[in-house]
Amino acid sequence: MVKSTSNEDESVSVRFQSVIKILHLLLSLGIIMAMDKFLERVFVAVAIKFPSALFGMFFVFSILMIFDSVLPSAATILINFFEPANMFIQRWLPVFYVPLLVVLPLSVKGIPAASGVKICFIIVGGWLASLSVAGYTAITIRKIVKTEMIAAEPMPKASPFSKFEVWSWTGMFLASFISAFLYPTALGTNARTCLPFLLAATVLGYMVGSGLPSDIKMVFHPIICCGLSAYLVALAFGYLSKSGVDAVLGYYLTKVSSNPGAGDILMEFLGSVIISFAFSMFKQRKLVKRHATEIFLSVIISSLFSLYSTAIIGRLVGLEPTLTISILPRCITVALALSIVSFFEGVNASLTGAAVILTGLVGANFVQAMLDKLRLNDPIARGLAAASSSHGLGTAALSAKEPEALPFCAIAYALTGITGSLLCSVPAVRHSLLLIAG
To answer: In 3D, which of 422, 270, 251 has the Cα closest to residue 360?
Structure first.
């Protein structure tokens, strides 16, 4: 009797602790998301075009650094409080960058096949060149300033997905897909109808991809599996419902807040993801301070190289000047890339977004293997090279396996976009790029 009571008490205690952990996660994640939405509204209200989430990242990092100097215990409390949110974001990080990859087929329509081949050549070759320049520049500058490399702080890795999670999402996918297909007249085929099964397909694809053997993931990253899963499901539903794959992909990412699709829901987390990078940067603050010179100089040099090498290669392969200018910011996150091309006239903004996603796709799939082949072994060089060459998708792919590289990915991710924006805002730089592109 006593033993039975003891077991019941332990069971109640475990359940209570589980509830507390869930509430802690929801509260910490909710605060980060609320901060993101608040900053976004403020920036819109005062007509600031700079991404509010990047400002939030540097703001949170600055606050943590100030606390660390004057009241270290406060910084520790903040880090511990937001740890559940950070681990949740780290576990699901690649998924939040997938929606633009899923709808990529809609972005490249209308591009001539010959031009498409040239653009792919520039993207793949440019990615490899930018990766090498960023990584080797960091190492070269480190040698010049004679900064000795020290070990990075160990970072926790996200837990693998359980069979229960996989089967739960499989059940949700099947139930929502069948419901949407069998009752199209009752529900109407629209974004809300497609949202549940497209969201489940995206999540399930990432889970399955994450569980693949390591040697397969080296050439078939979970991000690819995730995007491919959502696209194939959209293709199947478009065929069975006779609505067509383009229509279903349009429901996946509507960009309309009153009628969001699965991709819109996932991308709502992007601002929070970027803000959360501040906590990873703070954990590696010793390395950030120690190697600040190589970090900043390598980002500036790689940004210049990326812009001008794209213009030069585009001219050499005979790509139309307007298309060359459209893909100039291929290594910069979408929000800032679109801002950069707005400085130029006659560009194809859809192509800009597609070029950015294709660059990230190449980086996500091959960044880790290529960094190994180039013998870029330390987290600083690997993080800077990954983010400088393939922005958010490269960051998500590398940091999922190497969390120690995440802070340097985050810094390069932000500074590459800022540097590119500042460079292209200078008339002399814009004119020189236009002249090179022809």
So the answer is: 270
